[in-house]
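Q: I'm writing up a methods section and want to include an example of the input and output format. Could you take the sequence below and give the corresponding predicted structure tokens, formatted cleanly so I can copy it straight into the document?
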Amino acid sequence: MSSKIHFFNEDVDFRFKHKSIITKWITSIVKSEGQSIADINYIFCSDDYLLEMNKEYLQHDYYTDIITFDNRESLDESLSSDIFISIDRIKDNAQTLGISFETELYRVLIHGVLHLLGQSDKTKAQKAQMRKREEASLSLLQIPK
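A: Here is the clean output for your methods example:
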């Protein structure tokens, strides 16, 4: 059976490591929520690429680390999404937060999935809940040293 989670680069030279471990981790989080995955496409890109998408599709004129497009026709379908992630933002966020690039990258990967699973982050309380769920998810990830 082929993976339902795929990783692509748009305008960055980025080598994503541990694809099979990350795929299993994301799949297990989704299953733990009683959901399944039809297809999730992660597209790694630059700040400028994501800024243009943010302007065009969301009418937001600012940099962001992630944009998640939910491609389902209804919420009772398996997850189907294109998730765009700015490698530039991940680097900057990791530096600002004093954490590794990988830790921030994994947090953002699961952040998009949590949105697909219904977690919002519009209010302060929702943001706190999102962070709690991100941390809980990250605690389940086992990347070999």
